[in-house]
Amino acid sequence: MTEQIAQAINNKTKPRGSLGRLEDIAAQICRVQNTTSPRLVKPTMAVFAADHGLAAEPVSAYPREVTIQMAYNILAGGAGISVFCRQNGIDMVVVDAGVAWEGDKPQGMVDHWMGPGTASSLTGDAMTAEQVQQCYAAGAAVVDQSTDPACTIMGFGELGIGNTSASSLIAAAVTGIPLEDCVGPGSGLAGDGLNRKLELLREVWDRHPRSHDPRQIMAMYGGFEIAQMTGAMRRAYELGRIIMIDGFVATAAFLATWAEDPSIVDNAIFCHESGEPGHRRVLDHLGVKALLRLGMRLGEGTGCAVAYPIIVSAATFLNDMADFEQAGVSTGAPEAAAA
Fold this sequence. Notes:
Elements: H1 2-10, H2 21-33, E1 44-50, H3 66-76, H4 80-88, E2 91-98, E3 110-111, H5 129-145, E4 153-159, H6 163-175, H7 179-182, H8 191-206, H9 214-221, H10 224-238, E5 242-245, H11 248-258, E6 268-270, H12 277-286, H13 302-320, H14 324-327, H15 333-338
Parallel strand pairs: 1-2, 1-4, 2-3, 4-5, 5-6
Helix pairs in contact: 1-2, 2-13, 4-13, 5-9, 5-10, 6-9, 6-11, 10-11
């Protein structure tokens, strides 16, 4: 099939390679779907929301209650991810993985609530091993029960004050990249605030044992939303879906399943390189290149939604563009014209 895919791409009325990354994406989708006629059906964004015990410490520019406020904003259609999904015809599923609600929970979220946020990784493990397993199962259930069975492409995003801190710790533990190189501004820390965040995360790091077990790493440092994303990504891969990975936090969730089965990278499109400095280092470790580099660090899956039209273009040119024989164009003409 690999040769057939290459032939289908090269036979389009263009110089070979002239559509750059679009050709790479088209080939990747074709390999996943085992076809030369790729189909992007029922694109779906899954946004997982939860709180973190570590957010009680000075690791964010925003207080913990912003998780609740932004969850309401997403459901009301006013958040960045809401706008971009609406713009690009992407279905959205919002999952309550463990928000520390004050009062009644809102309507419209898929309920996989694990509790009012994780424990603080500063004083012990963020989650128990049992909670990690429950989160992985809950994420898989989101894919199986809350998305259209016809869906062929899914994006993954998150919401949770403190989750770049958890992601920095996960990334450092899984990849071996120094913690200092994984820690960034998150929701906007700078100067002394960023230094305090790094000092605190170093203290967390020093209080936990080193481990190569991704599930133990998730238990020590992770969040309910990160763990549920991990389970959802794994299930989407098992179903043969294209997996759109958002920024740093979503990539940390991806690392946890990649560490168990590296072949999942075959289905993954890394949609943008986050403004978080650790993200590029993690992408380099995985040997992948992000589709976009716009300095975004909003999370929520916004990078996936913004990149999706480009992915559509990759499938569309292969399906709709004429080949040389159909167009009556000499196979030598495009190269000559480009010279």
